[in-house]
Specification:
Elements (H helix, E strand, L loop, with lengths): L2 H10 L11 H8 L6 E4 L6 H15 L8 E6 L2 H18 L17 E5 L17 E6 H8 L11 H9 L2 E6 L6 H16 L7 E7 L16 H5 L3 E2 L13 E8 L5 H13 L8 E6 L3 H13 L5 E5 L5 H4 L2 H4 L11 E6 L13 E5 L3 H8 L8 E8 L4 H4 L4 H14 L7 H9 L3 H7 L10 H6 L25 E7 L25 E4 H9 L17 E5 L4 E4 L10 E5 L5 E2 L3 E2 L17 H10 L14 E2 H18 L4 H13 L7 H4 L13 E3 L26 H16 L11 H6 L14 H7 L3 H13 L12 H4 L19 E2 L14 E2 L17 H12 L1 H19 L6 H4 L5
Parallel strand pairs: 1-6, 1-7, 2-4, 2-5, 3-4, 5-6, 8-13, 9-11, 9-12, 10-11, 12-13, 14-18
Antiparallel strand pairs: 14-15, 16-17, 16-18, 19-20, 21-22, 23-24
């Protein structure tokens, strides 16, 4: 037995006496020691989840091969599949003794692996991004993962977008599972991998994609942008050998029957279901009938019709518009192998969500006619554990009005294929493989059509790197790259928002009320518009909420919940709805016709650290991470961040020159907190009498918009971003000590002289050791240093723009309006940056880098510098470097250490 066989036996949970033997395809996948993008075409029921996890975990964890990516990113078309996959992976890691529990109070041990669902909303275990040097498994839907891969994470705070983008774009193995259901998302995944391959020489860590499905066609991955990479991706596909189909699960007989029942005949369809179920003989796994409908609406109507018939049998409903809180019980109750037994007697009415990734075996499968790839997946749910099964495919109508959400031509092709299969009388794996081997090219093209409506261009990906909103908070629409048609979803959660004391509707839920993953319900955005605002006609516009409906969306710019309008109901948005506005039933899921009270989900309190990170990311001026248990100086916190950054840099094998820049960025990142408006906002009786406080207890901070103000209360800077002040301080070091530095005017000195602009002379006083470290940077290193310092909160990045709060500032001294709360000529006082070195002298800040074109003071503009960084490293690698510093800062912010500087200071 090979080492991998032993490893596989461990993750499969087999005993020493009865070891699980991997399938040959699972062994072949694990034998490829060099990670690479590839296609995996494996029939259902052949252990795809364990096979993929086994290969990655064997190389990354078992062999400790650092050439393999740290993060396994499992992308699935639907939420139900994500939750099932999470359970399998979590169990496997637990058997290895490597599972990290983010809820545990014990510190994380090196080598422990976290399993995280990225599904939108606040998650108590959502600190996965704080450990970029550790291995992790990230599981989510294509909506949640692809939006993050495009730097516009659905359900995530804006300030968190770059962090998650960087960690998903670098050091990651993407598994696109069940691609036949992903529509345009499949094309987007191929485009993203191609662009990463183009940038591979610029980056630091690998990024690969495995595309996986029982019906995957390599041609689906081909486009003008992927053409040069496509042969390498597809040259060695992982498949099941033909001889393996004739035995085991491949030889299971599944009798095929076809029928036609009109879409309107709900009673007739329900009677056929009950008749098939009652004719089914109980077996080892009970008597289970699985019904798969093509739409949620038809599944709900079928569920209702079955219940009206009053037969004594368990009837379950499964579709994508349930909250996770309700779905949590499905696996234990009826949607897993453990829930099947001799006494099981149930009918499960479902939609496409059970086409893949759901471990259930039905004695009878009744499916509405669907495209061929979907039918093949559905056939895999029948007799999944062996024995024999019966498959009934029902044509509910092949006209345009009844075919939705599918195309008529797809249904016609599938019906023709079923007619040919009728001669064989079975749709078992062996029969299907033999049938497909004999397909002529014309029918194959009809059965497996794929044409993405939108292709992500390289220019569009690069434009998405900039996450700066315009003054309205608007963003580029990425939904067309994730799903097509009207099935693009937003997320809804219900909150009990009682009327005020006089019985009037309240204007908004509490400011700190944020959505949690377990309470979010997916709703197609067009359907949500009609539900909340009413249906529009040519003569009647419905731009606002219907009477009696209360709903809100989060306003990033103002940091509060605001009443939603129709135009704001877009894919990926999270909408808060008052419980008394209806729209959901626990037993039926989303129901726009239900006007009764929706019970909110009971939620456990968020851990303090998770709540602080959430609050810090939710608006431009929020800075909850500056609140801490202990008072800390800029020098102490900067030193701790630099140390954490160094640890992460070593663990990720960052090159030595970049390691030095990352550590330096950690030490300098909070210098801007010495700004008088930042220090003036820290108010408590026991405040240390210093002007270099970086961390203070929560009750020392006034709430926005009065957080940042000078000590005399004469100068309010509500939009102040200390990280911009920190960045401008780095420029000030060069301006004072080396105006001709290559990062400033060095390349332009002669040209500026010819134009009559003399380069200033450095001040006579020698630079301090802290300044010398900055002066020692090359021009490229300085640009990266300045960028990382600016970007460490995700709020100041590729552009230096004023915000609405800046526009409201009253300029009483002629210095002009601020940018992110910083004004031209602001001065940072002398502070200690390194306790072992002389103090850092006072620094005068200039907003010159924010101007376009060449500055006679600071040289190239900020925009030109950031574009240069994107071109040098590629957007994914640059964002990954951002993520390393952000993780170091957030981890250091959780330390409850005593500041040695303050420990020796006199009491105020």
């Amino acid at each position: 037995m090979s080492d991998y066989d032993t490893w596989f036996s461990l993750i499969a949970g087999s005993s020493e006496r009865e070891r699980a033997t991997p399938h040959r395809w699972q062994q072949a996948l694990a034998e490829s020691a060099v990670p690479a993008s590839r296609v995996i075409r494996i029939p259902t029921g052949m252990g795809k989840t364990l096979g993929v996890f086994g290969a990655w975990s064997w190389h990354r964890l078992g062999r400790a091969d650092d050439a393999w990516p740290r993060r396994l990113v499992w992308c699935l078309p639907m939420r139900v599949l994500a939750e099932q996959t999470e359970a399998v992976v979590r169990d496997a890691l637990d058997r290895l003794g490597r599972l990290w529990d983010p809820h545990s109070t014990a510190p994380r041990r090196p080598g422990q692996v976290g399993v995280h669902l990225l599904m939108g909303g606040a998650d108590p275990g959502g600190e996965w991004a704080l450990f970029p040097e550790e291995s992790a498994v990230l599981i989510g839907t294509q909506d949640m993962l692809l939006s993050r891969a495009l730097n516009r994470g659905y359900g995530a705070a804006r300030a968190r977008w770059p962090l998650e983008f960087g960690l998903l774009a670098h050091d990651a193995l993407w598994v696109m599972d069940e691609v036949q259901l992903m529509d345009v998302g499949l094309a987007t995944s191929a485009q993203l991998q191609a662009y990463h391959d183009d940038d591979a020489s610029k980056g630091f860590r690998p990024r690969h994609t495995w595309w996986m499905s029982a019906t995957l066609q390599p041609e689906w991955l081909k486009s003008v942008d992927t053409e040069q990479h496509h042969p390498r991706w597809c040259h060695d596909p992982v498949v099941v050998a033909a001889e393996a189909h004739g035995h085991g699960l491949g030889a299971v007989e599944k009798t095929l029957v076809t029928s036609a029942i009109a879409a309107k005949d709900e009673a007739g369809f329900a009677r056929r279901i009950l008749d098939e179920h009652e004719a089914l003989s109980p077996g080892e796994y009970g008597r289970i009938t699985l019904v798969v409908c093509n739409t949620v609406d038809r599944a709900c109507r079928t569920f209702d019709a079955l219940n009206r018939m009053g037969r004594v049998v368990g009837i379950e409903l499964v579709h994508s518009r349930f909250r996770p809180a309700e779905r949590a019980a499905w696996r234990d109750r009826f949607l897993s192998r453990a829930a099947c037994g001799p006494d099981a007697d149930r009918i499960i009415v479902a939609t496409q969500v059970v086409e893949a990734g759901v471990d259930i075996s039905a004695g009878v499968l009744i499916s509405e006619l669907s495209p061929w790839p979907s039918l093949v997946q559905r056939f895999g749910r029948c007799a999944r554990y062996g024995g024999a099964g019966r498959v009934v495919v029902v044509d509910r109508g092949r006209e345009e009005r009844t075919a939705a959400p599918y195309d008529v031509a797809e249904l016609e092709a599938a019906w023709d294929a079923l007619a040919r299969l009728g001669d064989r009388g079975t749709v078992g794996t062996s029969a299907l493989e033999a049938f497909e081997d004999g397909l002529d090219d014309a029918l194959r093209r009809r059965l497996y059509p794929y044409q993405a409506q939108h292709l992500l261009l390289r220019r569009e990906l690069d434009e998405l790197f900039d996450t700066t909103p315009d003054l309205t908070g608007a963003d580029l629409d990425i939904s067309r790259f994730i799903r097509s048609g009207e099935e693009r979803d937003l997320q809804v959660f219900w909150v009990d928002v009682p009327p005020d004391e006089k019985g009037r509707p309240r204007s908004a839920p509490p400011r700190r009320r944020r959505p949690r993953r377990e309470e979010l319900c997916s709703v197609p955005y067009m359907l949500a518009r009609d539900w909340l605002c009413g249906e529009e006609t040519k003569n009647s516009r419905r731009t606002r909420l219907r009477s009696g409906v209360r709903a809100w969306v989060w306003d990033w710019l103002n940091g509060q919940w605001v009443i939603v309008e129709r135009s704001q109901l877009v894919p990926g948005r999270i909408v808060c709805v008052a419980s008394d506005s209806g729209g959901y039933r626990v037993e039926r899921g989303f129901d726009r016709g239900h006007d009764g009270l929706v019970p909110p989900v009971a939620l456990a309190p968020l851990p303090v650290t998770a709540a602080a990170q959430l609050e810090a990311d939710e608006s431009p001026d929020a800075d909850a991470l500056s609140a801490a248990v202990e008072w800390k100086t800029i020098a102490c916190h900067g030193g701790e961040v630099g140390e954490a950054a160094g640890h992460i840099a070593v663990a990720t094998n960052l090159p030595a020159d970049l390691r030095r820049v990352l550590v330096l960025a950690g030490r300098w990142h909070d210098v801007g907190k010495a700004h008088p408006a930042f220090q003036g906002g820290i108010r408590r009786a026991d405040r240390p009498l210093r002007q270099d406080i970086a961390k203070a207890p929560d009750d020392a901070w006034p709430r926005p918009p009065k957080t940042y103000r000078t000590a005399d209360d004469l100068d309010l800077r509500p939009g102040l971003r200390h990280e911009l002040a920190s960045t401008l301080a780095l420029f000030a070091v060069l301006q004072r000590n080396a105006p001709a530095h290559p990062a400033l005017l060095g390349p332009w000195g002669d040209a500026l002289g010819l134009l009559g602009h003399a380069v200033s002379v450095a001040e006579a006083c020698p630079p301090t050791p802290c300044e010398q470290e900055v002066l020692a940077c090359s021009a490229d290193e300085f640009d990266l240093l300045a960028y990382l310092v600016a970007a460490h909160h995700g709020k100041v990045r590729a552009a230096l723009h004023a915000e609405p709060r800046d526009q409201d500032y009253r300029d009483s001294d002629g210095r002009g309006l601020p940018i992110r709360g910083v004004r031209e000529g602001d001065v940072l006082p002398t502070i200690v940056l390194d306790p072992m070195a002389p103090p850092l002298p006072s620094l005068r800040l200039s907003l010159e880098p924010a101007n376009l074109g060449l500055s006679r003071i600071t040289g190239r503009s900020w925009r030109e510098r950031t574009l240069g960084l994107v071109n040098r490293y590629g957007p994914g690698a640059l964002a990954w470097l951002e993520g390393l510093l952000i993780a170091a800062d957030r981890r250091a912010s959780q330390l409850e250490t005593v500041d040695p500087i303050l420990a020796g200071a006199e009491a105020p």
